[in-house]
Protein backbone atom coordinates (compact mmCIF):
# COMPACT_ATOMS: atom_id res chain seq x y z
CA UNK A 1 0.00 0.00 0.00
CA UNK A 2 2.68 2.51 1.00
CA UNK A 3 5.04 3.64 -1.78
CA UNK A 4 8.05 2.28 0.08
CA UNK A 5 10.48 2.44 -2.83
CA UNK A 6 9.91 6.16 -3.37
CA UNK A 7 10.49 6.88 0.33
CA UNK A 8 13.63 4.73 0.50
CA UNK A 9 15.08 6.38 -2.63
CA UNK A 10 14.61 9.90 -1.19
CA UNK A 11 15.47 9.43 2.48
CA UNK A 12 18.12 12.12 2.77
CA UNK A 13 16.02 14.70 0.94
CA UNK A 14 12.98 13.89 3.13
CA UNK A 15 15.10 14.17 6.29
CA UNK A 16 16.43 17.58 5.26
CA UNK A 17 12.93 18.87 4.51
CA UNK A 18 11.59 17.56 7.84
CA UNK A 19 14.39 18.94 10.02
CA UNK A 20 14.45 22.40 8.39
CA UNK A 21 10.69 22.96 8.16
CA UNK A 22 9.06 25.93 9.87
CA UNK A 23 7.48 26.68 12.36
CA UNK A 24 8.73 23.31 13.70
CA UNK A 25 9.84 20.03 12.08
CA UNK A 26 7.21 18.58 9.77
CA UNK A 27 7.08 16.95 6.36
CA UNK A 28 4.56 16.73 3.53
CA UNK A 29 4.62 13.60 1.34
CA UNK A 30 2.23 13.49 -1.61
CA UNK A 31 1.39 10.18 -3.28
CA UNK A 32 2.24 8.38 -0.04
CA UNK A 33 0.19 5.30 -0.99
CA UNK A 34 -0.56 3.47 -4.22
CA UNK A 35 -3.39 5.59 -5.63
CA UNK A 36 -5.70 2.79 -6.81
CA UNK A 37 -5.47 0.90 -3.52
CA UNK A 38 -6.07 4.06 -1.49
CA UNK A 39 -9.14 4.89 -3.58
CA UNK A 40 -10.50 1.41 -2.81
CA UNK A 41 -9.73 1.98 0.87
CA UNK A 42 -11.52 5.33 0.76
CA UNK A 43 -14.60 3.78 -0.86
CA UNK A 44 -14.79 1.15 1.91
CA UNK A 45 -15.18 3.81 4.65
CA UNK A 46 -18.77 4.20 5.91
CA UNK A 47 -20.15 7.26 7.63
CA UNK A 48 -18.92 6.95 11.21
CA UNK A 49 -21.16 7.36 14.27
CA UNK A 50 -18.70 7.07 17.16
CA UNK A 51 -18.26 10.65 18.36
CA UNK A 52 -14.79 11.90 19.30
CA UNK A 53 -13.86 11.96 23.00
CA UNK A 54 -12.71 15.54 22.44
CA UNK A 55 -16.31 16.69 21.99
CA UNK A 56 -15.82 19.86 24.08
CA UNK A 57 -13.03 21.07 21.79
CA UNK A 58 -13.94 19.29 18.54
CA UNK A 59 -17.24 19.82 16.78
CA UNK A 60 -18.95 17.05 14.80
CA UNK A 61 -15.82 14.86 14.71
CA UNK A 62 -16.15 11.08 14.62
CA UNK A 63 -13.59 8.29 14.83
CA UNK A 64 -12.91 4.57 14.57
CA UNK A 65 -9.80 3.19 16.27
CA UNK A 66 -9.77 -0.27 14.69
CA UNK A 67 -10.18 0.88 11.09
CA UNK A 68 -8.35 -2.17 9.69
CA UNK A 69 -11.53 -4.22 10.04
CA UNK A 70 -13.24 -2.08 7.38
CA UNK A 71 -11.59 -3.82 4.43
CA UNK A 72 -8.55 -5.48 2.87
CA UNK A 73 -6.94 -2.23 1.74
CA UNK A 74 -7.30 -0.50 5.12
CA UNK A 75 -5.88 -3.60 6.82
CA UNK A 76 -2.88 -3.46 4.48
CA UNK A 77 -2.42 0.23 5.26
CA UNK A 78 -2.50 -0.50 9.00
CA UNK A 79 0.07 -3.27 8.62
CA UNK A 80 2.37 -1.14 6.45
CA UNK A 81 2.29 1.78 8.90
CA UNK A 82 3.28 -0.47 11.81
CA UNK A 83 5.93 -2.42 9.87
CA UNK A 84 9.64 -2.51 10.67
CA UNK A 85 10.30 -1.23 7.16
CA UNK A 86 8.33 1.94 7.85
CA UNK A 87 9.92 2.33 11.30
CA UNK A 88 13.34 2.45 9.63
CA UNK A 89 12.14 5.14 7.24
CA UNK A 90 10.75 7.47 9.90
CA UNK A 91 13.79 6.89 12.11
CA UNK A 92 16.02 8.05 9.27
CA UNK A 93 13.83 11.07 8.51
CA UNK A 94 13.81 12.26 12.13
CA UNK A 95 17.37 11.15 13.00
CA UNK A 96 15.92 9.36 16.02
CA UNK A 97 15.27 5.73 16.88
CA UNK A 98 11.45 5.69 16.78
CA UNK A 99 8.65 3.26 16.04
CA UNK A 100 4.92 3.25 15.38
CA UNK A 101 2.68 2.00 18.18
CA UNK A 102 1.57 -1.37 16.71
CA UNK A 103 -1.80 -1.07 18.49
CA UNK A 104 -2.20 2.60 17.56
CA UNK A 105 -3.62 3.72 20.92
CA UNK A 106 -5.49 7.00 20.56
CA UNK A 107 -5.16 6.96 16.77
CA UNK A 108 -7.38 5.67 14.01
CA UNK A 109 -9.76 6.84 11.32
CA UNK A 110 -11.09 10.38 11.87
CA UNK A 111 -14.08 11.87 10.08
CA UNK A 112 -15.17 15.49 10.39
CA UNK A 113 -18.76 16.11 9.34
CA UNK A 114 -20.61 19.37 8.71
CA UNK A 115 -19.05 22.37 10.50
CA UNK A 116 -16.37 20.16 12.07
CA UNK A 117 -13.42 21.82 13.80
CA UNK A 118 -10.63 20.88 16.19
CA UNK A 119 -9.25 23.47 18.62
CA UNK A 120 -5.52 24.03 18.76
CA UNK A 121 -3.88 21.63 21.20
CA UNK A 122 -0.80 19.75 22.39
CA UNK A 123 -1.13 15.96 22.36
CA UNK A 124 -0.48 13.62 25.27
CA UNK A 125 3.25 12.99 25.62
CA UNK A 126 3.74 9.58 27.30
CA UNK A 127 1.91 6.46 26.16
CA UNK A 128 -1.10 5.54 28.33
CA UNK A 129 0.14 1.96 28.89
CA UNK A 130 3.86 1.91 28.09
CA UNK A 131 4.98 4.73 30.35
CA UNK A 132 8.51 4.92 28.91
CA UNK A 133 7.25 5.53 25.36
CA UNK A 134 7.53 9.22 24.47
CA UNK A 135 5.38 10.45 21.60
CA UNK A 136 7.63 11.85 18.86
CA UNK A 137 5.41 12.03 15.78
CA UNK A 138 1.92 12.39 14.45
CA UNK A 139 1.54 10.68 11.07
CA UNK A 140 -1.59 12.03 9.40
CA UNK A 141 -2.74 10.51 6.11
CA UNK A 142 -5.49 12.52 4.42
CA UNK A 143 -8.29 10.91 2.43
CA UNK A 144 -10.07 14.05 1.21
CA UNK A 145 -11.05 13.15 -2.36
CA UNK A 146 -11.19 16.16 -4.71
CA UNK A 147 -10.39 18.51 -1.83
CA UNK A 148 -10.27 22.26 -2.53
CA UNK A 149 -8.91 25.02 -0.24
CA UNK A 150 -12.38 26.57 -0.01
CA UNK A 151 -13.54 23.40 1.76
CA UNK A 152 -11.26 24.53 4.62
CA UNK A 153 -10.05 22.13 7.30
CA UNK A 154 -6.37 22.58 6.50
CA UNK A 155 -3.98 21.46 9.24
CA UNK A 156 -2.96 24.51 11.29
CA UNK A 157 0.36 24.26 13.11
CA UNK A 158 1.86 26.80 15.49
CA UNK A 159 4.98 26.98 17.65
CA UNK A 160 3.98 27.84 21.21
CA UNK A 161 7.40 29.38 21.84
CA UNK A 162 7.45 31.85 18.94
CA UNK A 163 3.76 31.94 17.89
CA UNK A 164 4.93 31.36 14.31
CA UNK A 165 2.27 29.42 12.42
CA UNK A 166 1.39 27.80 9.10
CA UNK A 167 -1.62 26.13 7.50
CA UNK A 168 -1.08 22.98 5.41
CA UNK A 169 -3.45 21.78 2.68
CA UNK A 170 -4.99 18.33 3.18
CA UNK A 171 -5.66 16.74 -0.24
CA UNK A 172 -6.16 13.04 -0.94
CA UNK A 173 -3.13 10.76 -0.47
CA UNK A 174 -1.04 13.31 1.39
CA UNK A 175 0.85 12.26 4.51
CA UNK A 176 1.86 14.97 6.95
CA UNK A 177 4.53 13.96 9.45
CA UNK A 178 4.45 16.35 12.39
CA UNK A 179 6.80 16.57 15.34
CA UNK A 180 5.21 16.18 18.78
CA UNK A 181 6.78 18.35 21.49
CA UNK A 182 5.64 20.63 24.35
CA UNK A 183 5.31 23.51 21.86
CA UNK A 184 3.81 21.90 18.70
CA UNK A 185 0.25 23.21 18.61
CA UNK A 186 -2.08 21.95 15.89
CA UNK A 187 -5.76 21.81 14.96
CA UNK A 188 -8.12 22.95 12.18
CA UNK A 189 -10.76 25.63 11.65
CA UNK A 190 -14.42 24.94 10.90
CA UNK A 191 -14.85 23.05 7.65
CA UNK A 192 -17.04 23.85 4.67
CA UNK A 193 -17.14 20.52 2.85
CA UNK A 194 -19.94 19.83 0.32
CA UNK A 195 -22.98 17.93 1.58
CA UNK A 196 -22.16 14.24 1.94
CA UNK A 197 -18.37 14.79 2.01
CA UNK A 198 -16.28 14.60 5.16
CA UNK A 199 -12.83 15.69 6.32
CA UNK A 200 -11.23 12.24 6.53
CA UNK A 201 -7.83 11.16 7.81
CA UNK A 202 -5.96 8.26 9.37
CA UNK A 203 -3.90 9.20 12.46
CA UNK A 204 -0.91 7.11 13.54
CA UNK A 205 1.57 7.88 16.32
CA UNK A 206 5.27 7.09 16.67
CA UNK A 207 7.35 6.89 19.85
CA UNK A 208 10.86 6.83 21.26
CA UNK A 209 11.77 4.85 24.37
CA UNK A 210 12.93 7.09 27.25
CA UNK A 211 14.95 5.56 30.06
CA UNK A 212 13.77 8.42 32.26
CA UNK A 213 10.90 10.83 31.83
CA UNK A 214 12.02 14.25 30.60
CA UNK A 215 8.58 15.87 30.93
CA UNK A 216 5.71 15.69 33.35
CA UNK A 217 3.17 13.28 31.84
CA UNK A 218 0.16 15.10 30.41
CA UNK A 219 -3.02 14.36 28.57
CA UNK A 220 -4.11 16.79 25.85
CA UNK A 221 -3.56 20.51 26.50
CA UNK A 222 -6.20 22.65 24.80
CA UNK A 223 -5.85 26.24 23.57
CA UNK A 224 -9.31 27.57 22.63
CA UNK A 225 -9.63 30.74 20.57
CA UNK A 226 -9.72 34.10 22.36
CA UNK A 227 -13.45 34.49 21.65
CA UNK A 228 -14.28 31.11 23.26
CA UNK A 229 -16.71 31.07 26.17
CA UNK A 230 -15.54 31.53 29.76
CA UNK A 231 -16.65 27.95 30.54
CA UNK A 232 -14.62 26.51 27.65
CA UNK A 233 -11.49 28.41 28.68
CA UNK A 234 -11.84 27.22 32.28
CA UNK A 235 -12.45 23.65 31.13
CA UNK A 236 -9.30 23.81 28.99
CA UNK A 237 -7.29 25.17 31.93
CA UNK A 238 -8.38 22.29 34.19
CA UNK A 239 -8.64 19.57 31.53
CA UNK A 240 -5.50 17.65 32.53
CA UNK A 241 -6.54 17.44 36.18
CA UNK A 242 -10.10 16.38 35.31
CA UNK A 243 -8.97 13.69 32.85
CA UNK A 244 -6.41 12.27 35.27
CA UNK A 245 -9.06 12.12 37.99
CA UNK A 246 -11.49 10.40 35.64
CA UNK A 247 -8.82 7.89 34.54
CA UNK A 248 -8.04 6.97 38.16
CA UNK A 249 -11.72 6.29 38.82
CA UNK A 250 -12.83 4.70 35.55
CA UNK A 251 -9.70 3.97 33.51
CA UNK A 252 -8.39 5.56 30.33
CA UNK A 253 -10.36 5.13 27.11
CA UNK A 254 -7.16 5.81 25.18
CA UNK A 255 -5.45 2.94 27.03
CA UNK A 256 -8.43 0.75 26.13
CA UNK A 257 -8.02 1.99 22.55
CA UNK A 258 -11.67 3.02 22.38
Task: Kindly describe this structure.
It is a single chain. By secondary structure, this protein is α+β, with helices and mostly antiparallel strands. Strands 1, 2, 3, 4, 5, 6, 7, 8, 9, 10 and 11 form an 11-stranded antiparallel β-sheet that branches. About 3% of the residues have low confidence. InterPro entries: Pro_4_hyd_alph_FE2OG_OXY. This is Prolyl 4-hydroxylase alpha subunit Fe(2+) 2OG dioxygenase domain-containing protein.
Descriptive tags:
11-stranded antiparallel sheet, alpha+beta, globular, 258 residues, 28% strand, single chain
- Calculate Rg over CA atoms: 17 Å
Number of helices: 7
Instruction: Classify the secondary structure makeup into a structural class.
Output: alpha+beta
* Main beta-sheet strand count, sense and barrel state: 11 strands, antiparallel
Strand content: 25-35%
Task: Write a brief caption for the model.
By secondary structure, the chain is of the alpha+beta class.
Secondary structure: elements and pairs:
Layout: H1 4-9, H2 11-19, E1 26-30, H3 35-43, E2 58-64, H4 72-81, H5 84-94, E3 99-100, E4 108-122, E5 133-142, E6 155-159, E7 165-168, E8 174-179, E9 184-188, E10 199-209, E11 221-223, H6 230-237, H7 239-250
Antiparallel strand pairs: 1-8, 2-4, 3-10, 4-9, 4-10, 4-11, 5-8, 5-10, 6-7, 6-9
